[in-house]
Write a structure and sequence with these properties.
32% of the residues lie in helices and 32% in strands. The protein is of the alpha+beta class. β4 (91-99), α3 (108-122) and β5 (127-132) form a beta-alpha-beta unit. α1 (16-31) crosses α2. The longest helix has 16 residues, at 16-31.
């Protein structure tokens, strides 16, 4: 059986149904142990509130939100934080790369990363940065040409508790 051909798309507005699906995706990732700024258990109202704030940022042009869906609904997303200090207009931060556990290891993470890089270029960004606490994500980023900067030990808590290290990466889109 061949892997699905993912077609991530950029959302310029986010409706309530999409917020509900994004909340489900975030909850799944946190339940699966993803260190994405939330603790387990993640209450649904907190997940919905997070996506409502993201929706406001998307509507204001401060963020780019890319999503991918399968027959069961939204199953992957990534954000670009476009709103940076005035001395960093060339830069964006890649944030909240989430892939539902049901579709992991099928190429969706790579498709989302490529789509995020393309969106960054369209927005005039030439430098991207990200951080991760996931060794599998580290392998993906490195395979896609991201440069590892370093590791900060004890940077954040894992969703079920306990400190974890965080690895920082950058990608120059100019060359």
């Amino acid at each position: 059986m061949s892997a699905p051909a993912w077609s991530p798309r950029r959302l310029h507005t986010i409706d309530d149904a999409q917020i509900d699906e994004l909340a489900d995706l975030l909850i799944d990732c946190v339940e699966g142990g993803a260190s994405v700024s939330f603790m387990h258990p993640l209450p649904r109202d907190r997940a919905v509130a997070f996506w409502r704030r993201v929706a406001h940022g998307v509507a204001a042009g401060e963020r780019a939100l890319l999503v991918a869906a399968d027959a069961r609904g939204l199953c992957g997303t990534v954000q670009l934080v476009l709103d940076q200090p005035e001395n960093q207009p060339h830069r964006a931060e890649l944030s909240k790369m989430l892939v539902h556990r049901r579709v992991r290891r099928q190429g969706l993470g790579a498709a989302l990363m490529r789509a995020a890089e393309a969106a960054a270029r369209e927005c005039g960004k030439t430098l991207l940065v990200l951080d991760t606490a996931n060794p599998e994500a580290e392998r993906l980023y490195e395979r896609l040409g991201w440069q590892r900067v370093g590791v900060i030990p004890g940077f954040a808590l894992l969703p079920q508790g306990g400190l974890c290290s965080t690895t920082f990466y950058y990608r120059n889109l100019d060359g």
